[in-house]
Design a protein that fits this description.
CATH architecture: 3-Layer(aba) Sandwich
Oligomer: single chain
Largest sheet: 5 strands, parallel
Low-confidence stretches: none
Structural class: alpha/beta
Length: 147
Amino acid sequence: MAGRELVVIDSSVAVKWFSEEELTREALSIMGHHVKGDATLLTTPLLACELANALRHKPDYDQNKLREAMTHYYNLHIEEAPIDFRLLSRAGEIAFKGGVTIYDAIPAALAEIRETSWITADETQYSRLKEICADRIMFLGRDQALS
């Protein structure tokens, strides 16, 4: 994987791959870089749960469309880091400092541990964590190098 940029994504980016909304084009570009081999996307197993739950609540989704989306997601072969004590411990610190949930702090902690950047499309999360994670956090379509 030499030469491939490693980038953490969160569910706010992944949801846009399967739902037409603001910043969908930018999110699909990130996926395209991964598929072409220009970048390696990194997350934890939690993202699949968050993605499935978010899509389940979309009005245009039914059980079949959800199954198709999740099949496509798993076929992307996104690298998953395990959720372990080190990750949860750092996520807890970030969550308390930033006033976010542990779930929302996990991508930030993962990016820090793996010494890479993290792309989010969640404006609230971005604004709460930009000071704590200033050297790692990027807002989709605004800050990231991949586009």
